[in-house]
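Progress note, sequence design subtask.
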């Protein structure tokens, strides 16, 4: 699950998936699995980014 991974680990896995998908010998049998996993990781990364953005915003408001 992406939720148990750090943001950096998620990005690394996404990069590995992208590398496989860009390869000359794309494995058709695992294509759907890779695309599904990539969408899960992207959703998780977006969620983490939004959470950090909110937290930073709150911190900056408290500093004013």
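Output:
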């Amino acid at each position: 699950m992406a939720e148990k991974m750090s943001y950096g680990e998620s990005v690394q896995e996404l990069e590995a998936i992208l590398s496989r998908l860009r390869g000359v010998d794309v494995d058709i049998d695992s294509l759907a699995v890779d695309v599904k996993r990539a969408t899960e990781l992207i959703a998780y990364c977006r969620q983490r980014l939004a959470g950090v953005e909110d937290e930073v915003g709150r911190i900056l408001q408290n500093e004013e």
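The longest helix spans residues 28-63. Work on this subtask will continue into the next period as scheduled.
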